[in-house]
Here is the input.
Amino acid sequence: MRKNNVQALAQTAVLLALLIVLGMVPAVPTGILPIPIVLQNLGVMLIALLLGPRWGSAAMVAFFALVAAGLPVLSGGRGGLAVLSGPTAGYLLAWALTPVLVFACQRLLAGWTGKLSQPLALWLGAVASSYLLGTLVLVGQTHLPFWPSLWANWAFILGDTVKVVIALILYRAVQRFSLVKTGVRS
Here is the structure.
């Protein structure tokens, strides 16, 4: 294994562990949808930003292998195949796709020079896609009407937007630290 692969594997393991630790924070039920407010999606955003599409996807595959094996790594100590086929399945599937979706949104917005291009790419790739995919699966399973189910995601927008900001602050801090540690100057 080359040094870069070993380093990427170590970073992937650390961020996967962080994702699992964030799952220890109890979920907050909303009462609107059978979807709780969790802190784990902040970890998914960090994985997408820090690892990129290749290693980020590898981290998410490993995470969902742990979930499928029944390990209690999701908020509330949940795990198992039942969780992956329940009402939150679409939101979880969106997590698995987040590294690739964030990368795609970053590429789509690459020519846009505004200060909001990176936050917008993260919000679209991690939050909006989660709402859409989560709602589609939820509607398919519960037979709730699509538009009211989609609009019910408004309960999550403020918290998820705050998580986007926190993820970007942490991402930029890690980037600065990495540049200082390696002696690279901007």
In short: The chain is about 70% helix and 0% strand. Confidence is low (pLDDT under 50) at residues 182-186. The CA atoms of residues 87 and 138 lie 5 Å apart. The longest helix spans residues 40-68.
